[in-house]
Amino acid sequence: MSAPEGQELEKLRAQAQEQYRELRKRKPVLDDDSIDVILRGARSHYAWKDTPVSKATLETLYDITAAGATSMNTCPARFIFVTSDEGKQRLSKALKDKNIEKMMAAPVTAIISYDLDFWEHLPFLFPHEDRRGFFKGKAEHIESTAFRNSTLQGAYFMISARALGLDVGAMSGFSNEIVDKEFFAGTNQRSNFLCNLGYADETALFQKLPRFAFDEVCSYL
């Protein structure tokens, strides 16, 4: 894929700028309830209603997640939606005992991973300039870029899910090594974290845990 040039580039830039201006006119800021749904009032969930999540919803969830920014548009995250009994049984091999029940009860468990070959797709993802040379032969840089940006995409994923009316429960209590062996053997993909998806049984919630105050963790220079 070649990058647009000349008048075509100027037209595309003008369209993008106008679209952004119009969006900001229509929605200059989210209302308080919307902010509460995606972050301030959101909760991590551990119990789930027996309500399925449609494939159409998962496809929309990915489309929204994919719109989030990553460095050089690298987009290294990959997603496996585990919904079958067979898939859940395979995934349970990697989980700590206390997390197995949570995962089995959730309609969907997403394995959020990253592709160490992401940089080979840069001519498509970042057509303005061939930046594969930034990564070729640089294993440590590839790993850190993939992990950091897939984690960022995982956060977009969770916020997007909440915006679509889903509830989420991220999990790190598992063996990445076992997940990688079970699901990514023979590939250059590596697991990052897991995220249960569905419609929560809110009766399992307890009080929201404390957060630091602004002055405790923020400063000005």
Output the CATH class name: Alpha Beta
- What's the CATH H-level homologous superfamily? NADH Oxidase
The total tally of domains equals 1
Widest sheet: strand ordering: 1-2-4-3
Q: What is the name of the CATH architecture?
A: 3-Layer(aba) Sandwich
Q: Considering DSSP H and I runs of 4 or more, what fraction of the residues is helical?
A: 40-55%
Number of helix segments? 9
| Class by alpha and beta content | alpha+beta
- CATH names the topology as NADH Oxidase
Biggest beta sheet summary: 4 strands, antiparallel
Strand/helix succession = HHHEHHEHHEHEH
Folded structure, characterized:
The protein is α+β, with helices and mostly antiparallel strands and 221 residues long. The chain has one domain (44-202): NADH Oxidase (3-Layer(aba) Sandwich). Helix content is 45%, strand content 13%. It contains nine helices and four strands. The protein has helices at 6-26, 32-40, 55-66, 85-92, 97-105, 122-125, 139-163, 176-183, 214-217; strands at residues 77-82, 108-115, 167-171, 189-198. Strands 1-2-4-3 form a four-stranded antiparallel β-sheet, with helices on both faces. The longest helix has 25 residues, at 139-163. The model has no long low-confidence stretch (mean pLDDT 96).
